Amino acid sequence: MIELGKSQELIVVSRKPHGVYLAETPDAGADERILLPAKEVPEGTVQGGSIQVFIYRDSDDRLIATMKQPLIRLGETAVLRVRDVTKIGAFLDWGLQKDLLLPFHEQTARVSKGEEVLCALYTDRSGRLAATMKVYPYLRTDSPYIPNETVNGRIYQIASGHGAYVAVDDLYSGMIPERELSRAAKVGDVLSLRVTAVKEDGKLDLSARDKAYLQMDEDAEAVMKLIVDAYGGKLPFDDKADPERIREVTGLSKAAFKRAVGKLYREHRVLIEDGCIRSV
Predict the structure, then answer these.
(1) φ, ψ for residue 151 (rounded to 5)?
(2) Domains of the chain, with CATH numbers?
(3) In this structure, what are the phi and psi dihedrals at residue 152, rounded to the nearest 5 degrees?
(4) Exposed site from 96, 219, 221, 244, fewest CB < 10 Å?
(5) What is the Cα–Cα distance from 101 to 145, expressed in whole angstroms?
(6) Which SS3 state, helix, strand or coil, does residue 38 take?
(7) Termini Cα distance of the chain
(8) Is 132 exposed, middle or buried (0-12, 13-18, 19+ CB in 10 A)?
(9) In three state form, how does the secondary structure of 177-235 look?
(10) CB contact at 8 A, 246 and 252
(11) Are 131 and 121 contacting, i.e. CB atoms less than 8 angstroms apart?
């Protein structure tokens, strides 16, 4: 069976001025053959020989073969560049003459021309190849990583109340819990992350922050700068404040904020009084 979106080795069953027809068997019927255009036929091709080709649809929506190998195949993920954005979606450069459509409803965030996006290749309801940024089902769960290793991950989706879905090495499934997520994080960000756990199903739990005792110094300086620069030396709440308010203002979890404030207090750089934190 000739499969759309995949590379296959097919047999040359006939030759015409406009190209050669390929099939799985030498006696395949007309409806089981596919054209490799003349401009792509390798020199020395003979009837009965075999050729490795990729199968997709041309601009007239007909199945066609090409000697070119695309940057992504059916069921795979890859980072592709946006060539253009139109009324129906974005078009991606995937290494073939006809650009690949990324429909608006398959975008986890709006993309712009020239941007690079992580996507997967799938077939839509009309049997056409298309791209999706909803890559969760396509990512692998057999990563080689263990807890406390540092990895690179690309955010491909952010879910309120859950966190950021991440493709580690653009290949493996991971997640940053919302409590670990910076307010400035957005789809497309590539971050250096720490593996906090490997789940039973192989998915990775990740953190954009270092271990608490290593992160505390950085957090303390960030809180001190916030108190002095943004609030004139007096933060209008203390470490007993609501976690959501703490995160909204500082970008830290309540636990991380308490550690940072505790460090500043022990160093006599702040005072905690009347529900506020004041610089000394």
Answers:
(1) -135, 165
(2) 7-66 (2.40.50.140), 77-136 (2.40.50.140), 140-207 (2.40.50.140), 212-279 (1.10.10.10)
(3) -105, 130
(4) 244
(5) 33
(6) helix
(7) 76
(8) buried
(9) EHHHCCCCCCCCCEEEEEEEEECCCCCEEEECCCCHHHHHHHHHHHHHHHHHHHHCCEE
(10) yes
(11) yes
Structure tokens at 91: 């078009």
Q: Residue 201 corresponds to which tokens in the numbers above?
A: 């199903």
* CA distance linking residue 244 with residue 212, whole number of Å: 20
Q: Which pTM value belongs to this model?
A: 0.72
- Joined together, the tokens standing for residue 237 give 């709440």
Question: CA-CA distance, 6 to 112, in Å (whole number)?
Answer: 28
**Is the distance from CB of 239 to CB of 273 less than 8 angstroms?**
no
Q: Cα dist. 136→169, 174, 253, 264 in Å?
A: 14, 9, 26, 41
Residues counted in the chain = 280
Distance CA 35, CA 45 (A): 14
Per-residue pLDDT 10s for the chain (280 aa) are 889 999 999 999 998 989 999 999 988 888 889 999 999 999 888 888 999 999 999 888 889 999 999 999 999 999 999 999 999 999 999 999 889 999 999 999 999 999 999 999 999 998 899 999 999 999 999 999 999 888 899 999 999 888 999 999 999 999 999 887 877 789 999 988 889 999 999 999 998 865 544 567 788 888 999 999 999 999 999 888 888 888 888 888 787 888 888 888 878 898 888 889 999 8
User: Longest C-alpha distance within the chain, in Å?
Assistant: 89
Name the residue type at position 35.
L
CA dist., res. 164 & res. 169, Å (int): 15
> CA nearest 13: which of 44, 36, 39?
36
